[in-house]
Write a structure and sequence with these properties.
The structure is a single chain. The chain is mainly alpha-helical and about 160 residues long. It has one domain (about 5-140): Arc Repressor Mutant, subunit A. The chain is built from seven helices and three strands; from the N terminus they run αβααββαααα. The protein has a three-stranded antiparallel beta sheet with strand order 1-3-2. α1 crosses α3, α1 (about 5-20) packs across α4 (about 75-85) and α1 crosses α7. The protein is elongated. The protein starts with 5 loop residues before the first helix and ends in a 23-residue tail after the last helix.
Length: about 160
């Protein structure tokens, strides 16, 4: 199976959480882990990689936390994938064509390359501002208490009254 590592999925959840908070908002690692169902033990390593890639910024100490390093509209799913996995490589011959003596005449290598380019373009077009908006719309349509507009204080949760 071709797939991303668990740490990349967790990294996307972290960036999505921060994007859903709005510009300049920050959250603690513990808060993100709790709200996005992440193991706290992975947070430091993942956040460190995201910070090294210029996706998030961290502040230590009292009042510290994690925030986006740039607007969510400027961060793509491909950026997160590259930060965590190093990039998209469907086959070794795509990453290093000279390593394969057949690469110049191989139609399979060209197909792998084409698929890689297509996947990178697709992931590069997925921006975290749009993902945060989709999350907000899903939560609202699903009947959950509405998440407040970015940067506002959350309202008290709605109470469901049983029928009858």
């Amino acid at each position: 199976m071709i797939g991303i590592g668990r740490h990349t999925d967790y990294a996307a959840r972290i960036v999505l959480h921060l994007a859903s908070l709005g510009e300049s908002a920050q959250a603690t690692a513990a808060e993100i882990a709790r709200k996005r169902l992440l193991p706290v033990a992975f947070m430091r390593r993942i956040v460190g990689k995201l910070a090294a890639a210029g996706i998030v910024r961290t502040t230590r100490g009292a009042g510290g936390g994690v925030r986006l390093a740039r607007p969510a509209a400027e961060i793509s799913l491909l950026d997160v994938l590259r930060a965590m996995e190093g990039g998209v490589t469907l086959n070794a011959c795509v990453a290093s064509p000279p390593a394969c003596p057949l690469s110049e005449s191989c139609p399979v290598q060209r197909a792998w390359t084409s698929a890689t380019v297509t996947l990178e373009a697709q992931l590069g077009g997925v921006r975290f501002d749009a993902l945060a908006d989709a999350l907000e719309n899903h939560v609202t349509r699903a009947g959950y208490p509405h998440r407040p507009a970015r940067g506002r204080t959350p309202a008290a949760p709605r109470r469901r009254v049983p029928p009858g």
